[in-house]
């Protein structure tokens, strides 16, 4: 097994000719927690969306647990992988979005069961047992039969996290997982992310919660203008930022 959960090299994404991601490199070790920070519009969401191939990057290579995803080099030439190969890899990357995106017409339990049955071809019994265990772990044992509209924002976000975890991903990507929540619900979701980190889950968390980045992340990555402008351990990056743009950003959000 590879010690590198995710490897991104030379990732470039353009919208209407202008580069939103400009030659980004990032390797994430198995079990590592990366907090990604940066001003609005700097490319954080696009970066996560390109890693999952929701968005097609113009250039760059992605690999998950040592296996190429999307593009690979065969005999010295770059090949787009066939759709089959891409689809088989997709469950290895769990993504939780800023906006709560459960299927509204399915119960919380069914939201967690369905992708396991459809994508991983698990039996309904196996998928249901796994979903019930996850919902219980996430303090949602008595919420399984509710439709999303009958859950609080924090509960919905926890169901979305359970749904992603049910796929046994190599890595979890979180795009501002608490930014749509009422202030009193933020702490619960951050505590859950902290538990996941303590359990060894590899993750990239895009967040404006600097306290979370300081306490939970192994590494903080500051993105600016589609590039990684500074990165390192939180104690250094957050307390002794070198890049003046990072200094300015931190003084604005603190
Ligand atoms: P962040 O998540 O850091 O706030 P985004 O990745 O959402 O930033 O956006 C980065 C830049 O790319 C912004 O200038 C945004 O307007 C632009 N952008 C994002 N998605 C699209 C799209 N689908 N079409 C055109 N421009 C986009
Ligand atoms: Mg964003």
UniProtKB/TrEMBL annotation:
GO terms for molecular function: ABC-type amino acid transporter activity; ATP binding; ATP hydrolysis activity. GO terms for cellular component: plasma membrane. It is found in: Cell membrane. SUPFAM superfamilies: P-loop containing nucleoside triphosphate hydrolases. Pfam families: ABC_tran. Its main location: membrane. Residues 6-250 form the ABC transporter domain. It comes from the Bacteria. InterPro entries: AAA+_ATPase, ABC_ATPase_HisP-typ, ABC_transporter-like_ATP-bd, ABC_transporter-like_CS, MetN_ABC_transporter-like, P-loop_NTPase. Keywords: ATP-binding, Cell membrane, Membrane, Nucleotide-binding, Transport. It is a peripheral membrane protein. Belongs to the ABC transporter superfamily. PANTHER family: AMINO ACID IMPORT ATP-BINDING PROTEIN (PTHR43166), L-CYSTINE IMPORT ATP-BINDING PROTEIN TCYN (PTHR43166:SF35). This is Amino acid ABC transporter ATP-binding protein. It comes from Jiella endophytica. The lineage of its organism: Bacteria, Pseudomonadati, Pseudomonadota, Alphaproteobacteria, Hyphomicrobiales.
């Amino acid at each position: 097994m590879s010690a590198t959960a995710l490897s991104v090299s030379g990732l470039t994404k353009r919208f209407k000719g202008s580069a939103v991601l400009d030659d980004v490199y990032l390797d994430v070790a198995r079990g590592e927690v990366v907090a990604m920070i940066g001003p609005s519009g700097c490319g954080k969401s696009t970066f996560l969306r390109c890693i999952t191939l929701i968005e097609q990057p113009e250039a760059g290579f992605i690999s998950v647990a040592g296996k190429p995803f999307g593009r690979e080099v065969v005999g010295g030439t770059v090949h787009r992988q066939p759709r089959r190969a891409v689809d088989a890899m997709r469950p290895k990357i769990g993504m939780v979005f800023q906006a709560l995106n459960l299927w509204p017409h399915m119960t919380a339990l069914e939201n967690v069961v369905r992708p396991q049955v459809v994508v991983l071809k698990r039996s309904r019994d196996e998928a249901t047992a796994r979903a019930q265990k996850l919902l219980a772990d996430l303090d949602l044992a008595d919420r399984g039969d509710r439709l999303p509209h009958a859950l609080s924002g924090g509960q919905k976000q926890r169901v979305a996290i359970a749904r992603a975890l049910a796929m046994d991903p190599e890595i979890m990507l979180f795009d501002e997982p608490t930014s749509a929540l009422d202030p009193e619900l933020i702490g619960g979701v951050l505590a859950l992310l902290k538990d996941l980190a303590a359990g060894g889950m590899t993750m990239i968390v895009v967040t404006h919660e600097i306290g979370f980045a300081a306490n939970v992340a192994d590494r903080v990555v500051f993105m600016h203008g589609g590039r990684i402008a500074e990165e390192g351990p939180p104690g250094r990056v957050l307390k002794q930022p070198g890049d003046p743009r990072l200094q300015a950003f931190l003084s604005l959000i603190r």
